[in-house]
Amino acid sequence: MRYALLAALGAVLAAGFVSAQPLDGTEQPEVNAEVMASRAAAQQFGKTLKEALQQAIKSGGPANGIVVCHDQAGQIAARLSEEREMLVGRTSLKVRNPSHTPDAWESAVLKQFEARKAQGEPVNQLEFFAVIDDDQGQKTFRYMKAIPTVGLCLNCHGENIAPEVDAELKKLYPYDKARGFKEGDLRGAFTIAKPLP
Ligand code: HEC
After folding, report:
1. Over the stretch 36-45, which tens digit does the pLDDT of each residue have?
2. pTM for the full predicted model
3. 62 lies in which domain range?
4. Strand partners, 90
């Protein structure tokens, strides 16, 4: 997805800005419905991935978990996108898989999340949405929800990665930037887009 910089700037001005509490749906019921649907999709994506990952690590160690992330994360995202009729994915300012590189709008939101975190907002409550025109002029609802780094993630995204995991990651991801994270860091975000009528 590529969006013109102007659209991204406009989005920042026109954007909704919420913390975890539900919105009052009386003013913008269509947008409110998209926010609710996006929260549910992001939550399901996170839960499904984490369960698959925990299971794989339990049965075969962290190196086995790489298979889940490498082979299944994209499939889970694709299945959810189809089921929920919205484009569901993950992004980060430091990506492992280059296909998760943020576009201009996503990059601005990730930086905004870092700034809000620095001001003391809990990472697990950071979210942001906006209705923007994409570069084809298509009105699009966009939503992002921060992903915190927890202990489990350090096996593959931390500062000290076990040699066999490290070797496998280097083989699969020669351009890996998603290392050196600490518990509590912003690892990235779920990102959702849905064209509006
Ligand atoms: C077993 C190793 C492993 C563990 C543990 C792991 N990841 Fe990852 N992670 C990966 C791999 C491999 C990818 C690249 C997936 C792909 O190619 O689509 C990835 C990609 C990601 C991405 C997508 C952005 C990017 O960098 O490409 C996010 C976000 C992410 N991981 C967050 C987490 C979080 C949060 C945790 C802890 C709950 C976690 N990961 C635990 C291996 C791991």
Report:
1. 999 999 999 9
2. 0.89
3. 29-195
4. 190
